[in-house]
Amino acid sequence: xxxxxxxxxxxxxxxxxxxxxxxxxxxxxxxxxxxxxxxxxxxxxxxxxxxxxxxxxxxxxxxxxxxxxxxxxxxxxxxxxxxxxxxxxxxxxxxxxxxxxxxxxxxxxxxxxxxxxxxxxxxxxxxxxxxxxxxxxxxxxxxxxxxxxxxxxxxxxxxxxxxxxxxxxxxxxxxxxxxxxxxxxxxxxxxxxxxxxxxxxxxxxxxxxxxxxxxxxxxxxxxxxxxxxxxxxxxxxxxxxxxxxxxxxxxxxxxxxxxxxxxxxxxxxxxxxxxxxxxxxxxxxxxxxxxxxxxxxxxxxxxxxxxxxxxxxxxxxxxxxxxxxxxxxxxxxxxxxxxxxxxxxxxxxxxxxxxxxxxxxxxxxxxx
Length: 368
Ligand SMILES: Cc1cc2nc3c(=O)[nH]c(=O)nc-3n(C[C@H](O)[C@H](O)[C@H](O)COP(=O)(O)O)c2cc1C
Hints:
By secondary structure, this protein is an alpha/beta fold.
């Protein structure tokens, strides 16, 4: 099937609204051509309800970029997506765009579009579009949120780009803008793989609630991954956390902080010391041969396994220790996120005023 599109099925995941807004702009473009459209939140949809698609349906995926890749929630969705007999598919990722003076500076995709594109190709889909959209960065563990004026400007720029891309794809054309970035994407691809497996064990575990937290549970209820639990009467970020930043950016009390990752540094250091002591102790009983390939592979696996186990244990201990005011203060007073200048990120108010509110994921479908 080729030619004009007769039905559009769009899936998106979004932490702070950027990817959701791109999906909505695309859906609006389809609506203006009277193309029936379904828009579904990957984090809320029950995959069992996805029925085989009619051959003329165009399917689209929009997701933020996390660690130069689609976040695991989007990737797992695509890994388990039903097979097709040639449906057209397009993939979009929103990235960390910036604006320096008059210049719009793009983010970096890594394998964010390439890996899902390969998976979907193997499942029998035809890729007709690959496009990154450089909306403002929401990664406020690393930098303060972008100023409102800059957000508005980047949003206006990106809405136009999305509309042009959508209109070409809906006219049945092929658009592979992502090929422009392929060299730098390949260069950072090793980091993507590392982040995919390690991100949630590391960076996603730097959040904590400061003393402004009044247990309103908004973060818990709004979390798209249902990853925040209540432990010791305080929010606790479980390993389902995608680090999507919705909690930290939307807390009305600015009670969610991040320790900028140095807690992970401390944990890894303790981890290394314990594991080194452990191996020295093991070597008093067994002589571990250094130049035997298989033994080395086995030992490496055991080392990584133990590192993971220790990280899980440490994170529990860390959360427990945060009950102690002195320890909490240590992280609180050494984190920059508590300062006023460390803005939280909000997507453009002007641009999205026509769109439905970003509510807790409830699985509802939005037909524009
Ligand atoms: C944990 C994390 C990792 C990120 N990694 C990247 C990245 O590798 N490349 C990039 O361009 N942007 C990266 N970003 C920025 C987001 O992809 C970008 O702000 C996106 O538009 C957010 O979309 P959302 O509002 O739908 O969640 C990252 C953001 C977070 C929170």
